[in-house]
Design goal:
This protein is of the alpha+beta class. The chain is built from ten helices and eleven strands. The protein has a six-stranded antiparallel beta sheet. A three-stranded mixed beta sheet has the order 2-11-3. Strands 1-7 form a two-stranded antiparallel sheet. The chain starts with a helix and ends in a 9-residue tail after the last strand.
Length: 270
């Protein structure tokens, strides 16, 4: 049972490796499609703190022998630039709001919505996140800002990969995998799959990242690539066909649009 759990965790990390190469390596041959489908079907909901390394080794045992994992580092300059753009835009909006205080008694619904952009929040401000776990990861740790998820999420980190999980309620759970590792090589017959990922026209409003969605018997997955890393968000539901969080796109894309950086020290501060 424990070994199977580690395999499921490792496969979730493998799918994130695939997403990491979507934009920068679309010409490379993708990993084995059976491993991809298995990962999409069996995402881990919670990662044992001491078992993440074993999980990644278990994933390697299930990957096509022709595939190779390339260890990459995140584009920290792009991360800093995006945080700076968002900060400048927020300051400009705040100044505009102050100048209009005499004319506006209460903010409109549009004003209350969080504007697009990536923001940072120190791990000490996240209720269930252990700062040491976040600091262990040397890649951007992105988690949803939505309070219903943010206050329940736990993060488990390693140098070049992290996972996060939360039980949203009795009927739904969230898991996230992120890594800058890229899997290349494998079965040449699935290169079309890799190209489909790279050619997705849809982009997240929050970060501008191109994304790809897929559904399975347990829920829905959203994969995107940002700062040279790949991320996979999974929502699993007790009744995926009836629960709108799994049956429709709005919930998971809303979470992906609201992603915040949980390790601002990586970019040089909060």
């Amino acid at each position: 049972m424990k070994k199977n759990r580690l395999v499921r965790v490792g496969l979730a990390a493998l799918v994130a490796c695939i997403a990491a190469g979507v934009v920068a390596a679309q010409e490379r041959t993708p990993p084995d499609p059976e491993a991809i489908q298995a990962a999409l079907r069996e995402k881990a909901k919670r990662i044992p703190k001491a078992g993440l390394a074993s999980a990644l080794r278990a994933a390697a045992d299930n990957r096509d022998a022709r595939a190779t994992t390339l260890v990459r580092r995140p584009d920290l300059e792009a991360l800093r630039a995006e945080l700076a753009r968002t900060s400048a835009a927020d300051e400009e909006r705040s100044a505009a709001d102050l100048s209009n205080l005499s004319a506006v008694r209460a903010p409109s619904a549009a004003q209350q919505r969080v504007a697009p952009g990536l923001r940072a929040l120190a791990p000490e401000n996240l209720r269930r996140v252990a700062p040491a776990e976040v600091e262990r990861a040397l890649i951007p740790v992105l988690i949803p800002a939505a309070a219903e998820v943010r206050d329940k999420i736990r993060v488990y980190g390693m140098e070049n990969v992290y996972t996060a999980s939360a039980r949203i309620d009795a009927e739904a759970a969230l898991s996230i995998s992120g890594t800058c590792n890229r899997v290349v090589g494998g079965d040449p017959d699935v290169i079309a799959f890799r190209k489909r990922l790279a050619e997705q026209p849809r982009r997240l409003a929050g970060t501008g990242a191109a994304y790809f969605m897929s559904r399975n018997d347990f829920g829905v997955d959203l994969s995107f690539s940002k700062f040279g890393c790949g991320y996979v968000i999974t929502i699993e539901c007790g009744d995926p066909g009836a629960d709108p969080r799994c049956a429709e796109d709005d919930y998971i894309t809303g979470l992906a649009d609201s992603m915040i950086l949980a390790n601002p020290d990586l970019a040089g501060g909060e």
